[in-house]
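INFO batch 0412 | record 1 of 1 | parsing
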Amino acid sequence: KNRKKITAESLKEEPWCIPFEVKGKKILDAGCGGGNLVSRIKLLGGNAYGLDQTRGSLKQIKENFEKYNEEPPHLIEGNIEYIPLKNNTFDAINCHGVLHHSNDMNRGFSELTRVLKKGGTLYFMLYRKNCLWKYVKDVLRFGARRSKLFFNLIVKLTPHWMGTTAKQSDPRTVFRDNIVNAITDTVTVKDVKKICKANGLKIKNIR
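INFO prediction complete | emitting tokens
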């Protein structure tokens, strides 16, 4: 109901906030999922593109915009490892929590770098290795794959630890991504530096 009232300030409140200019820029949300971020970029005046391999998610984004008589962002069905777009296309790319679920993370980075303009910004989030949350998820993943009762219990408890994300994301989706996803990789800061160097990316900030 308040789509047109969204301001740049609202982006700062999101866990996937982006540290670059939106208005008038050509921006890709790689692995856009349900469309929370790509929708905000579009409504804030960005030339927004959403890439996802789940057709149902893209359909939902389109329907949400049509419901409010708004023109939807450009939506592309595709895999992050084989992005069906030309080189040097985007001023900025957001890739939040996607690369660590890909078959080949290095190829994913290579593809994102390929479609990013020279001097552009790539903002990404990856699961960190050797942190408490990683070990907690390992325990939950072990139990969820071996007990249906435990699986259902964790699904019900998921909204309680989602924080602000609970307002935008479906608990089952978050649970699936964090606990039962077949591919869930983790990285160290050293790994990130190595990947960025291999793809010619200059690191501005790691947090």
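INFO post-check: The two ends are 34 Å apart (CA to CA).
INFO record closed
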